[in-house]
């Protein structure tokens, strides 16, 4: 490895399989068989190669090793299907941003296991946790081994002299998109007009220039708009497709981006405006937190709705021109959209800064190196306090470890 640089593979180039981002199906590929280790990196992971080689040399390459920076849950969480409910902190899973590594003997065994025994769940929700569970295999496989040299500190931090990996901020792509370029659609219903809508008005509504509330009841005091779609207890597909059609109509301002959120979504629009500077609205962009359904059996990816779904105008045009529609008003809107995007061959773009659940549902160490864009759900929390702690920007954004860093350098 000192004579020549390691082989660098980009997941999206290895095959046309939509599920490649879930990684486990990829292990049956022949890559890496002449190597000792496969190291998985995120886009923002920096690597000091000499240091990484020295770290890996501490471990016997002929044995099965699963290496990483461990995360754990402080309490059982819905995103991990309430696994290890009696003692959630006992199970460790890797922080992908720090890099994680598998020895080739483990890769070979896992490749055979994937062929014979696909992932038990149809859903891919939090990949890092699900990969760790699959490798652990109810105690039959290796635990994650903590490697202190795999770090998530910023590359310019004085605490990184021992680190083989560090983090760089995502690229700064230019000026934030203008408020005028965003149209925000909030899905609500009559029973939540007095409970959830006031939270939005107290927190993030003021950052939206173009925003409409869509409900099953027109309330002029909010105001809400009745799209003529009956409220459903779940799914909301009919309402979402009515929003897509309205977005392209002359009833609303002609904007480049559509943001669709639930009435219990907490979101930082200024941070979103910064992130969107990295994307071209003339392309069919669909952005948010990516989940998967049936990925090991030719399924599809989708943007989970609670964290917010962001569409370029071109994406909405293509979706509606395709004839894609709901099979019922209460079908799951995010999954139906995922099926349609998959059929059209349009990618779903993942950002880990969107969150389908509450801050309490994520590992503290995972959130410590993020400046998040959204969270979802008001259950057992004070949503205004959560917004103020995690999403409110004065002159700076506060990361959870208390460091004050400018939003621009973080996003």
UniProtKB/TrEMBL annotation:
Pfam families: Fringe. Keywords: Glycosyltransferase, Membrane, Signal-anchor, Transferase, Transmembrane, Transmembrane helix. GO terms for cellular component: endomembrane system; membrane. It comes from the Eukaryota. InterPro entries: Fringe-like_glycosylTrfase (IPR003378), Nucleotide-diphossugar_trans (IPR029044). It is found in: Endomembrane system; Membrane. It is a single-pass membrane protein; Single-pass type II membrane protein. Its main location: membrane. The keyword Transferase applies. One of its GO terms (molecular function) is glycosyltransferase activity. Residues 32-111, 176-382 form the Fringe-like glycosyltransferase domain. Belongs to the glycosyltransferase 31 family. This is Beta 3-glucosyltransferase a.
